[in-house]
Hints:
By secondary structure, chain A is an alpha+beta fold. Chain A has two domains: 4-230, Rossmann fold (3-Layer(aba) Sandwich); 240-359, CATH 2.40.50.100. Helices cover 23% and strands 36% of the residues of chain A. Chain A has a six-stranded mixed beta sheet with strand order 6-7-8-3-9-10, with helices on both faces. A five-stranded antiparallel beta sheet of chain A has the order 15-19-16-17-18. In chain A, a hairpin with a 2-residue loop joins strand 9 and strand 10 (215-221). Chain B is mainly α. Chain B has one domain (5-60, 92-220): Orthogonal Bundle (MetI-like fold), CATH 1.10.3720.10. Chain B is built from eleven helices and no strands. In chain B, helix 1 runs antiparallel to helix 8 (146-161).
Amino acid sequence: MNNQIRVSCQLDRRTMAGSGFSLSADLTLPAEGITVIFGPSGCGKTTLLRCIAGLDLAEDAEIVVQDTIWQDHKRFLPVHQRKLGYVFQEASLLPHLTAGGNLRYAAKRSGKPQPELWDQVVNLLSLGTLLERKPDQLSGGERQRVALARALLSQPSLLLMDEPLASLDLPRKQEILPYLEQLRSAFKIPVIYVTHAMDEVTRLADYLVLMDQGEIQAAGPVEEVLSQPSLAAFFGDETSVVISGCIAQRDPQWGLMKVTFAGGDIWIKDTHQALGDSVRLRVLARDVSLSRSEDVDSTIQNRLRVSLVEISDTPDASTAMLRLKCGDVQILARVTQRAISSLDLKLGEQLWAQIKTAAVTY
Amino acid sequence: MILSEADISTLWLTLRLASVVTLILLLIGTPLAWWLSQTSSRLKAPISALVSLPLVLPPTVIGFYLLLAMGPNGWLGQLTQSIGLGTLPFTFWGLVVASVFYSLPFVVQPIQNAMEAMGSRPLEVAATLRAGPVDRFFTVTLPLARPGFLTAAVLGFAHTLGEFGVVLMIGGNIPNETRVVSVQIYDHVESLNYAQAHSLAGLMVATSFVILLTLYLLQARGKAVPSLVGSKR
């Protein structure tokens, strides 16, 4: 089976007066893991997702999910015939049904209802006690959990999520994120996830698509896309890399744990996950500093041996973005142009990168 | 209360008329309201205006044109004659056709308001859960717009109970065929038979009040969200 999702979508809603917008995307996405479409509000990412689902009609589109053609120049499969799950931004439970009724609505129409799937989904999203409630008796976070369960119970071959956390406050968001992470391992359903929040990118994305003004700016595995210094303008102050590793050691006295990855170790705040669990770290470029010699006197305890592979300009003339290699892992560091000049940094040089423990966000 | 046998037969006739008309109106009004709530066609405004005409026109005007249309030379009359039904004026079914036109806005508008208040999101959600168009109509539109249907049925029924002008123009005054309560009351008053007029008129007031009271009580309980004709929520 072809393990790809083809999305080619051209849409022009510009008016004569110059308002409206256009969308042009041509993507081949992996049919596994979580693909995050990231971009500022109004860049067209939701429209792209709705075109993939068939909720919006792109006149010129080709959408092929694995071997099933959803749309091409002569066919348009109606939404209800596409094997998709869709989680909308705001609560979208059918208001006349209970939470359980919403789940049954999906299960009944999924083709072949599976009782064991029902149990798995209800347990995974901890919905056991909520099933009898009406949507208006649920909190925002609970509603999104039910909406997610409902999408899973329709047994989709592609799960589309449109900023499912955007309408939630921070604590609710923290409540849902772990469920989304479990989704990746518990179900083998490919996900396309739209967001404008960087922390969701670093926590969830396996594959990242950057969008701006209706155009695709970059696409690729998340580690690759995030470590391109040329995209610094896109992320601004949030420029960061994602490092995957696993928990190797715990220091209960200081409440820290050691994460080992392909380029070394980093100590972070203990998240109380089990030893051996894999975790993702987000390292912000602005929190990485460099020195020629190992500064053992520093309060910054995470020091990595790196080599400098690229220096590139940022939109801010006083700073530069440095790309560093640490084993197989790439890290970005934002430093001032003056520091580069006074230290006389050269490509290929071996340096020490210092990372603030507190800056490793997850 | 003195109700003659003739009074009672007009009551039954009126109930039968209102029930048949309400049923037909729900069948016609639902797709019409659905179309009006979904379309962005240029025809939306003129069709809406046409549907609402009975709200402002004198019943005699509607009755007059329907009489012409249903007469032997009218287009509707030609049609009914060609399929062997004869002509409709001065028959029960003539009254039914006229009442359907006359009460149409009272049924279409509450349903349309309810469907518009529902928005497109629940239908999109149902579509992403593999519900086809018919499935969506019965499992999402109908239950969510139910208060609108309730309001529509009550108003259509009550409004048909009370019509007079259109009945006179189309149906005349034939016992057991077209003589409805409002016409009977008129006859009683004409013949200075005030006691019998009182009985029927009082009954009409009480019935209409109870029907509307039920509707408003249901609305207050939140069961019937969309408001009455003309005033959108």
